[in-house]
Amino acid sequence: MPEQLLYAMEVTLNGLMAGVMYSLVALGFVLIFKASGVFNYAQGVLALFAALTLVGLQNGQVPFAHVINAIFDTNLHTFGWKLPALLAILLAAAVMVLLAIIIERLVLKHLVSQAPIILFMATIGLAYFLEGLGDVMWGADIKKLDVGLPQGISDTIESLTDRWFGYGFFIDNLDIVATLVAVVLVASLTLFSQYSKQGRALRAVADDHQAALSVGISLRFIWVLVWSIAGFVALVAGIMWGTKSGVQFSLSLIALKALPVLMLGGFTSIPGAIVGGLIIGVGEKLFEFSIGPMVGGATENWFAYVLALLFLVFRPQGLFGEKIIERV
Amino acid sequence: MLYREAGDFKTTYSEDSQTFPIFFDRMGYYVTLLLAFGLVPLFINDYWANAVFVPFLIYAIAAIGLNILVGFAGQVSLGTGGFMAVGAYSVYKLMTSFPDVPVLIHVLIAGAITAFVGVLFGLPSLRIKGFYLAVATLAAQFFLVWLFNKVPWFYNYSASGQITVPQSKMLGFYVTGAQTSASAKYLFCLVVLVFVAVVARNLTRGTMGRKWMAIRDMDIAAEIIGVNPLNAKLTAFAVSSFFIGIAGALFFAVYLGAAEVTEAFSIQKSFLILFMVIIGGLGSIFGSFAGAAFLVLLPVFLKNVLVGQLGWPTDLAAHLELMIVGALIVGFLIAEPHGMAQLWRLAKEKLRLWPFPH
Asked: What are the phi and psi torsion angles at B168 (to 5°)?
């Protein structure tokens, strides 16, 4: 096979892997949008907050150390212990559930039946707040996240492909793990929403709030539930992205990357989030590879949005979204 | 007692349809103008101009522009930063190419160029609605910023990739460049803002504004009663982008002086201006002013209190500021989803009855 084609294949594979990472964030969006009609801009910041909390717990940092030091002139930094990764992940998940309860209590409860744009704005406000809170609690420096996931180039794949094609593919171990995790996550979410009582209630709420209320489903419980699940998905995304590129502010920007994924897949479809992520991932990598050098590179910044925009002109509800029916 | 319509008889049609039909409102408007043009320029210094007044005036222009699109025509846009960048780079190219033309004309032409770009990115709004459109406008934001960053022609092949404003004079005073006095900056922006506000106010209460509002309230119904959606949506995009382009041009030429597109016109700017519109009040010109004032003053206030008074480190203050701004936004949306303009409306209702509420 010609070198160029093999290289393009490698780029495609890497694009698929990157797409999985986008899908992880997009999943959280879809879950919340389906269940409550809230377009949750804060999903990316949730991932950042989850990752910060995880690192902080793992390293035994004192929360709010910076504030305490500023007020009382103390010099606190760490408790001086290190938690095992698994325990820290469980604790971080607990923090995310707590956060979901607080968000429902303080924000969502008061905004029932407001216009979607108001709810959207509220989640942007929430995003600002959480971003500030994460920095104040755990400090704003770039942190290394290590929960024992394999990293670096996968040797097995390189040697295998080298034997088959005479050309070794470079694929990150972490991306392979992320793909496996995403598959497990989607499968368990699907099982949960299809076969458990809470899952059925969740789908009922997504279908029709009023009808769900009238058969005795607690809307508030469902909201807490769905925000907890979204928080957990954010934690998973935060672990993956944090391991890949360090826990820092730019982590919250992946939320913006997840938006075109959502548009492409449709706001209400879990498979859509995955397929959309793969299309965007492959599309932007291939575009950067083929056209990028001609126009100065860094096309990844905007390609996803323009692709989604053009796509929507032909199919306004995305690939798998519910058909938009408008009546007067 | 003073604030009522009763006894204020209109004898001509033009009196009847004036912008401020209540005498007290009208006087308030004139007094504000008088103070803004007569008193403030006498006392303004560099700190007040750069920290408060000039950003307030420029953000107010941008907020009015965005309010026309989001508040009146109901098309949510997250591309404001990108459109401001179009205004800034247009005015830069115009000023460096035609240095003899007065800068005010350049600013208006920059607005017109932005209006054209806005219409281009507004075209998909005919097919795409709601949040899908909001996300689609992100394409404008990221593509435009990338374009100005990557194509050297836009920044005249300068080595740093920055654009720096050349000096220029109007009526014998410097209005751009390092030698500009605080009052010249202030007055220049003020003149533009008054022009923008008057145009916006009159557009929104005329046929055009009613078409926009019909589209906002329900586009299919509006189409059935004879509003052309193509026409209404694209004019909304054009007018809104025109104002936002002017704001971007002033932001670069008068306020910043030198700008780097990824920093000055990032997505954060889009959100900031959207917040101004929402906190101020959707579909209200007064609200745009109130929102801009609130979000310009709040960081200045917080910084003075936290860093100046309490002596906390600046990075901590910046993070706390994020938290406070976020919490205030959420709090505001819960307490009054229609923004500060609604508070003002309620206050006026109370004032009409005062001091005899029964």
From this structure: -150, 155
One-letter identity of residue A235 = L
**Is there a domain that residue B80 lies in?**
yes
Asked if residue B348 is part of any domain, the answer here is: no
Spatial distance between the Cα atoms of A309 and B117, rounded to a whole number of angstroms = 16
Question: Which phi and psi angles does B175 have, rounded to 5°?
Answer: -115, -20
- For B311-342, letters b (16+ CB in 10 Å) and e give ebeeebbbbbbbbbbbbbbbebbbeebbbbbb
Q: Give how many domains chain B has, as a whole number.
A: 1
Question: How would residue A1 be classed by pLDDT, with cut points 50, 70 and 90?
Answer: low
Residue ranges of domains in chain A, CATH in brackets: 3-314 (1.10.3470)
Residue whose token pair is 């030091």: A69
B307 at A interface, C-beta within 8 A: no
- Residues of chain B in contact with residue A263, where contact means CB-CB under 8 angstroms, are 132, 135-136
Q: Of B159, B148, B172, which Cα lies nearest the Cα of B93?
A: B148
Report the distance separating Cα A57 and Cα A89, nearest Å.
Answer: 9
Q: What is the pLDDT of residues B48-62, one digit of tens each?
A: 888 889 999 999 999
Amino acid occupying residue B275: F
The parent domain of residue B104 ranges over: 44-266
What pLDDT sits at residue A173?
Answer: 77
Please work out, in degrees rounded to the nearest 5, the angle formed at the alpha carbon of residue B283 by the alpha carbons of B280 and B285. Answer: 65
Residue in chain B nearest A126 by alpha carbon: B326
- B246 is a domain residue: yes
**Is B205 within the bounds of a domain?**
yes
Using CA atoms, how far apart are residues B14 and B16, in angstroms rounded to an integer?
A: 5
pLDDT tens track for A120-145: 888 888 988 998 888 888 877 777 77
Nearest CB partner across the interface for B333, out of A106, A111, A308: A111
- Rounded-to-integer distance, Cα B285 and Cα B308, Å: 34
